[in-house]
Amino acid sequence: MLWLALNCGSSSVKFAVVDATDGARRLAGVQEIPAGEAQAALDAVVAELANNPDLVGELAGIGHRVVHGGERFSESIRIDAEVLAGIEGVSPMAPLHNPLNLMGIQTLQRAFPALPQVAVFDTAFHQSLPPRAYLYAVPHSLYTEHGVRRYGFHGTSHRSVAHQAADRFGLGGKSARIVSAHLGNGCSTAAVLGGRCVETSMGFSPLEGLVMGTRSGDVDPGLHAFLGQRLGLDLAGVTRLLNRESGLLGLSGVSGDMRELEAAEARGDVQAALALEIFCYRLAKNIASQVVPLGGLDALLFTGGIGENSARVRAQVLEWLAPLGFEIDAGANARHGEGTDGRISVLGPPLAAVVATDEELLIAEETARVLGD
Q: Does any domain span residue 164?
């Protein structure tokens, strides 16, 4: 059977028609999302599918990555009107993502009304976090009455690479200790113990945690009131500034794209170099903190657009993590781990490796499972 996986992110729409028999792609592509043009990107995906009517005729169902499912959705689920309402209800917690995910679902429902569709939630992988990890130090009623807690994101990616590492490096046991670093326009880490997530860097929304392309990551909460007073912004304006004008873009004044920043650094741009240093430092510091809930570390996995392609970022991070026992293999790192099992460190444990995420395959597998293939 063939399954269509749709992955709407904050900067691109990825899609793949996956053959369930062997996981092979029968069709795949990426549509970048220019500012305010998400619908155009989705329409382009539908058009490309329409140009392949034989494949569309073989589709058994469609799976969608949905970033935020709150506590209501702890696993993948077939989409109906009630599920759509539930996704919309938690959209304020992920304002850059859930509205796009809903747009993707509604677009494909219109295009292919006869096909069943499934929501695969990023937050579901993090439902195994213990209370000590997901609760904030605020009045407990805010959790019980309003759902204020840490949820975590990029769950499909973290789950994908952790499963791959279990097979590739023999880390499938209950005591296997993995940190995965998903680094793209959005960035997060996850501490995975025996296949279950026990800690992660993102929280109530995808704004918490690491420095990202345009997102600030962790800041002092007092900054909201200060910026509101100094800049004359309401809360929505401050939230927009921290989500869309901060991170690597805000630090560098050049771009939120790692490729452009590395090129600027090579030209001698001091501010771009500082932005990269801050990005790597915060990442290394966060990875080190994940060792606490794991009780040690067997493997560090780099994935996502930056994690899979930036030798400079990986080298800097591993240099700062040398106290944990990492020794980088410069040649393997320069090749992004290609030609081997992805390993970019010498000896180990702990080992460091580049593992390409395969969110679309995981979405397709979950869709097949939910629909009973």
A: no
